[in-house]
Write a structure and sequence with these properties.
Elements (H helix, E strand, L loop, with lengths): L1 H4 L1 E2 L2 E2 H15 L2 H9 L6 H21 L7 E3 L3 H10 L6 H18 L4 H8 L2 H22 L3 E4 L3 E4 L5 H18 L5 H12 L1 H7 L12 H5 L15 H4 L5 H26 L11 H18 L4 E3 L3 H6 L5 H11 L6 H4 L4 H14 L12 H16 L3 H18 L8 H15 L3
Antiparallel strand pairs: 1-2, 3-6, 4-5
Subcellular location: Cell membrane
Membrane topology: Multi-pass membrane protein
Family: Belongs to the nucleobase:cation symporter-2 (NCS2) (TC 2.A.40) family. Azg-like subfamily.
């Protein structure tokens, strides 16, 4: 009887609310991980945290109320790595310029989401390259995690090497990685965020006994001691983007990469979530696809205004769907769960890099699944996909992986007499790739 009262027109409020909480637990790691990555680009941790929460709240609400899908929207993993390590560190862009590029990428995404343009672009990009880029970004994120933990280090003889195991930072990272892996495998709700918290606590002796500045030290002067656990949100990045300086021809490859990576990521998420929850419309397409893509495009546009990397839909939303979430109420509940963390930046900012490193490694593992869909026996498909896959982490650049994946696909297909498989749209993409190479971007 209680269940009947909570069910109106097929909507079970209890199930949707619990699904929303489950989805939030699966995605809340971004509240910590995103600021930890973007702070390496010179953006203030607290301000990025505020931007992350605001974007996740507003855009998840839009996804729930406008697109009516049980999908959380937040700053995307991979996109934040591209922002920091390719746009800012690799190309030397000022963070304000990079935020402007994010905004223009959102505008481009909005244009592409209108009419048949989106469909033409989607058809232009071969499926094997989409799968390879997703997995390549996963490897890139994993490499960043290992690097942040000082597990993978520079070695003049071999370019890279593995750390010695007499380093307490490395030992703490290994503990956190194994612990978080066990929690994930056992399907513990909020496994990644629990792993971050426990690894942070395990890092305490490093700060106390070894005085390592890269680890937390609760006994010294920390933000928690000075300000307390709560603090007002930091809105210093709100509107702090350079729209004019970023709207340059030389930066269009960056804008292009932001927009198209976000588009592919969104489409793969919608397809995966639709498959998980049988959320298809009468035409066999993911439910409310156009509205969902418009929401994602708006998330990228707002990300530049708020002060963070592009927003995107999260495949972890499948966790809530597995709990029975089927409507937009799931996304609304999950989005609302982000809000309290606006006021917890002093507490969250003490989390060291080694505590978020296990999360980065495991998120990379989650992103590897699409690689199994590549036909490795079909070499004219597999070789370009392989180049895209490996060049993203090996070149430390998502852009380079995209460029050489697209160009090699075109050259190989034409060379083996399959030029018809190269669409007009891909030829246009190739032109952008050549432009990016010739301009040194």
């Amino acid at each position: 009887m209680n269940d009947h009262r909570m069910t109106i027109k097929g909507l079970n409020y209890r199930t949707e609310i619990l699904a929303g909480i489950s989805t939030f637990l699966a995605t809340m790691y971004i509240i910590v991980v995103n600021p930890s990555i973007l702070s390496q680009a010179g953006l203030p941790f607290g301000a990025v945290l505020t931007a992350t929460v605001l974007l996740s709240f507003f855009c998840s609400l839009m996804m729930g109320l406008y697109a009516r899908n049980p999908i959380v929207v937040a700053p995307g993993m991979g996109l934040n790595a591209f922002f920091t390590f390719t746009a800012v560190k690799g190309m030397g862009l000022r963070p304000e310029i990079a935020l402007g590029a994010v905004f223009w990428a959102g505008i481009l995404f909005l244009i592409l989401s209108v009419g048949n343009i989106r469909s033409a672009i989607v058809r232009a990009i071969p499926h094997p390259l989409r799968y390879a880029v997703s997995a390549g970004i996963g490897l890139f994120i994993t490499l960043i995690g290992f690097e942040n933990a000082r597990f993978i280090i520079a070695n003049p003889a071999t370019l890279v090497g593995i750390a010695r195991f007499d380093d307490p930072i490395v030992l703490t990272f290994v503990f956190g990685l194994l612990l978080t892996s066990i929690l994930v495998v056992r399907n513990v709700p909020g496994a990644i965020i629990i792993g971050i918290v426990l690894t942070t606590l395990a890092a305490w002796p490093i700060g106390r006994l070894w005085g390592d500045a890269s680890a937390v030290n609760f006994g010294q002067k920390t933000l928690v001691n000075l300000q307390g656990v709560w603090a007002s949100p930091d809105f210093s990045l709100l509107g702090n983007l350079d729209l004019v300086g970023s709207f340059k021809w030389s930066l269009w490859p960056v804008i292009f990469a932001f927009a198209f990576t976000d588009l592919f990521d969104s489409l793969s998420t919608f397809v995966g979530v639709a498959e998980a929850g049988d959320l298809y419309d009468a035409d066999g397409q993911p439910r409310n696809l156009n509205r969902a893509l418009l929401t994602d495009a708006m998330a990228t546009t707002l990300a530049g205004v708020f002060g963070t990397s592009p927003g995107t839909s999260y495949i972890e939303s499948a966790v809530g769907i597995a709990q029975g979430g089927r409507t937009g109420l799931t996304a609304v509940v999950a989005g609302c769960c982000f809000l309290p963390f606006l006021f917890l930046s002093p507490l969250l900012s003490i989390i060291p890099a080694i505590a978020t490193a296990p999360a980065l490694v495991l998120v990379g593992a989650f992103m590897m699944k699409p690689v199994t869909r590549i036909e490795w026996g079909q070499l004219d498909d597999a070789l370009p996909a392989f180049l895209a896959l490996v060049l993203i982490p090996f070149s430390y650049s998502i852009t380079q992986g995209l460029i050489w994946g697209f160009l090699s696909w075109t050259v190989v297909k034409v060379a083996v007499g399959k030029g018809r498989e190269v669409s007009l749209g891909l030829w246009i993409v190739d032109a952008f790739c050549i432009l990016a190479l010739t301009t040194g971007q």
